[in-house]
Automatic annotation (TrEMBL):
Gene3D superfamilies registered for this protein in UniProt: Jelly Rolls
Positions of the Sugar 3,4-ketoisomerase QdtA cupin domain: 6-130
Protein name (database record): WxcM-like, C-terminal
InterPro entries per UniProt: QdtA_cupin_dom, RmlC-like_jellyroll, RmlC_Cupin_sf
Length: 131
């Protein structure tokens, strides 16, 4: 089973003119992107996520601000990732329980391997632990 890891996006430019980062399958994305969504204006006191997916893999990116991502695999392996640069993401495989907490004005972009379907979500932690 794959586990979460940091993903480096290519970065083009310099500090004089700015940068652009690219997400393409040819640059090493671990899946074909089927859905892109973003989260913003989340109060710092709110913990989001609290779920896993049966099929969907994702890469989460802090386009702006800082996001702390906590992950847990079914075997109990825990990891913490701090996303605070827009050229770094965290890969989340299927069956990876995850939570996110955001700094003020953080913007999170998610690249997903599947289109949305409610049946793909594992929202009950006890059921996740049995997977």
């Amino acid at each position: 089973m794959k586990k979460p890891y940091l993903f480096d996006f290519p970065r083009v430019g310099n500090h004089n003119i700015g940068y652009i980062s690219i997400a393409e399958v040819s640059t090493g994305l671990p899946f074909q992107v089927k859905r892109v969504f973003w989260t913003y204006h989340t109060p710092e006191s709110i913990v989001r996520g609290r779920h896993a997916h049966h099929q969907t893999a994702q890469i989460l990116v802090a386009v702006s601000g800082r996001i702390v991502v906590l992950t847990e695999m079914p075997n109990g392996e825990l990891q913490t990732f701090v996303l605070d640069r827009p050229d770094i993401g965290v890969y989340l495989p299927p069956y990876c329980w995850h939570t996110m907490q955001y700094s003020q004005n953080a913007v999170q972009m998610a690249l997903a391997s599947t289109e949305y379907t409610a049946d793909d979500y594992i929202r009950d932690y006890a059921k996740f632990k049995k997977s």
